[in-house]
């Protein structure tokens, strides 16, 4: 299964995570940051629906599993984290 960057950011927001995703830039559609984020999330949500990870406005079990994997990824330490 291939995820668009928009779908990953929408999935990240479903995790209640607002941090950026390491090594995945937020797509730019407009210069207004707030408006751009709204466009990214709307497109990402549509992509998740097309992938049948969201059905009838509810995340599926597999969507939750992908969300868990993404959450672990965003929380993991990287070689660039020198804390």
Question: How are the secondary structure elements laid out?
Answer:
Blueprint (H helix, E strand, L loop, with lengths): L4 H10 L18 H18 L3 E2 L2 E2 L1 H15 L8
Antiparallel strand pairs: 1-2
Helix pairs in contact: 1-2, 1-3
Describe what this molecule looks like in 3D.
The protein is mainly alpha-helical and 83 residues long. 52% of the residues lie in helices and 5% in strands. The chain is built from three helices and two strands; from the N terminus they run ααββα. Strands 1-2 form a two-stranded antiparallel sheet. Helix 1 packs across helix 2 and helix 1 packs across helix 3. It is globular. The N and C termini lie far apart (33 Å). The mean pLDDT is 90.
Write out key terms for the chains shown.
83 residues, 52% helix, 5% strand, two-stranded antiparallel ribbon, 2 strands, mainly alpha, 3 helices
């Amino acid at each position: 299964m291939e995820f668009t960057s928009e779908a990953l950011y929408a999935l990240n927001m479903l995790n209640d995570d607002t941090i950026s995703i390491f090594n995945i830039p937020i797509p730019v559609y407009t210069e207004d940051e707030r408006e751009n984020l709204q466009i990214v999330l709307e497109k990402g949500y549509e992509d998740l629906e097309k992938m049948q990870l969201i059905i009838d406005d509810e995340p599926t079990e597999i969507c939750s599993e992908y969300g868990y994997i993404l959450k672990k990824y965003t929380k993991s330490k990287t070689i660039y984290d020198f804390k």
